[in-house]
């Protein structure tokens, strides 16, 4: 029997509806909720991502500002803009689209953002709180993965979770999140990467396999355990249709793996919608923290 499809669009819509209602309620109390994005350069994929974030802000009633900067902008100018946004009461959250040009330090830029406005959850203070078990903001993709698993009633506690990919955006914070003692976590987590020997020996024992490696269709059917849950974070452009549209695929061979797994996310329509929705959730949370509603 083919795997159950874990539809991120359905779950994202439910969460967005909840966020929209709360945004409306707070605005009636004169509490502003706003997101500012900073995009440096002309990367087409980054432009698409930023545009989609502003579109969702508009649909949820969240104020948004878009700051698109030239690729040759100085590091000092980017940092100066962030410092200005840190002081603006209308802005609850600040997002700097990654990747940045090589002449701009991602670490310096991230550390300039006020941790209370760091809705991506990448500031060292927020990553430290996550490691300690009392997170302020959880990075959006890991949080989206956790929320998707919980929505579909997938048992995380006690599960063998294998994550392929150790990025600071997904792999590392996700491993920390799912291994925390407590509700919707408490898993045994293995973090695999480019130096992992015999990757298949790890992936085949996973109850929950999460792949965020950035390599198209790297996980084949023979690399997964029958009945396992497979979460595909990857999104790869592998060609174009006759109409000129991008052909997308994940890091998992969806057609092959869906015949063996118990549940699987599609690409697109799986983790992507969850990531953007968790950004909106974090922006709302930031507004409530800054208004003193949350402590």
Walk me through the structure.
The protein folds into two domains: 30-120, Leucine Dehydrogenase, chain A, domain 1 (Rossmann fold), CATH 3.40.50; 140-272, Rossmann fold (3-Layer(aba) Sandwich). It contains ten helices and eleven strands. Helices cover 39% and strands 17% of the residues. The chain has a six-stranded parallel β-sheet with strand order 1-11-8-7-5-6. The protein has a three-stranded parallel β-sheet with strand order 3-2-4, sandwiched between helices. The chain is α/β, with parallel strands linked by helices and 295 residues long. The radius of gyration is 19 Å and the shape is globular.
Q: What order do the helices and strands come in, and which of them pair?
A:
Elements: E1 4-5, H1 8-27, E2 34-40, H2 44-60, E3 63-69, H3 75-87, E4 93-96, H4 106-112, H5 124-132, H6 140-151, E5 160-164, H7 171-179, E6 188-192, H8 199-203, E7 208-211, E8 229-232, E9 236-240, E10 246-249, H9 254-257, E11 263-264, H10 271-290
Parallel strand pairs: 1-11, 2-3, 2-4, 5-6, 5-7, 7-8, 8-11
Antiparallel strand pairs: 9-10
Helix pairs in contact: 1-10, 2-10, 6-7, 6-10
The chain-level mean pLDDT equals 96
Instruction: Please mark out the parts with pLDDT under 50 across 5 or more consecutive residues, or reply none.
Output: none
Largest sheet: 6 strands, parallel
Q: CATH-wise, what's the superfamily of the largest domain?
A: NAD(P)-binding Rossmann-like Domain
SSE succession: EHEHEHEHHHEHEHEEEEHEH
Any idea how many domains?
2
- The overall strand count is 11
CATH topology of the largest domain: Rossmann fold
CATH architecture of the largest domain: 3-Layer(aba) Sandwich
Instruction: Trace the largest sheet across and list its strands.
Output: 1-11-8-7-5-6
Radius of gyration: 19 Å
Number of helices: 10
Shape: globular
State which percent range the strand residues make up: 15-25%
In CATH's first tier, which class of the largest domain applies?
Alpha Beta
Please report the distance between the alpha carbons of the first and last residues. Answer: 47 Å
Percentage of residues in helical conformation: 25-40%
Structural class: alpha/beta
């Amino acid at each position: 029997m083919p795997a159950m499809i874990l539809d991120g669009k359905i779950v994202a819509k439910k969460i967005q509806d909840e966020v929209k209602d709360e945004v409306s309620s707070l605005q009636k109390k004169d509490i502003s909720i706003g997101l500012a994005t900073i995009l440096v350069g002309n990367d087409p994929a980054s432009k698409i991502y930023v545009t989609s974030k502003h579109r969702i802000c508009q649909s949820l009633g969240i104020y948004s500002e878009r700051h698109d900067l030239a690729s040759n902008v100085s590091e000092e100018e980017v940092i100066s803009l962030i410092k200005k946004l840190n002081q603006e009461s209308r802005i609850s959250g600040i997002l700097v689209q990654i990747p940045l040009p090589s002449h701009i330090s991602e670490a310096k830029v991230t550390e300039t953002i006020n941790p209370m406005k760091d809705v991506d959850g990448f500031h060292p203070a927020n990553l430290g709180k996550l490691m300690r078990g009392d997170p302020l903001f959880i990075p959006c993709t890991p949080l989206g993965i956790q929320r998707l698993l919980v929505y579909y009633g997938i048992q995380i506690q006690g599960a063998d979770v294998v994550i392929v990919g150790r990025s600071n955006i997904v792999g590392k914070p996700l491993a920390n999140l799912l291994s925390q003692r407590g509700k919707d976590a408490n898993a045994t987590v293995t973090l695999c990467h480019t130096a992992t020997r015999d990757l298949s020996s790890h992936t085949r024992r996973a109850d929950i396999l999460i792949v965020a490696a950035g390599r198209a269709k790297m996980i084949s059917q023979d690399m997964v355990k029958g009945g396992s849950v497979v979460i595909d974070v990857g999104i790869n452009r592998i060609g174009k249709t006759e109409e000129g549209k991008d052909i997308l695929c994940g890091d998992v061979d969806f057609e092959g793996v869906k015949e063996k797994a118990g549940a699987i996310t599609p690409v697109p329509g799986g983790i992507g919608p969850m990531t953007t929705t968790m950004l909106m959730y974090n922006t709302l949370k930031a507004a409530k923290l800054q208004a003193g509603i949350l402590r």
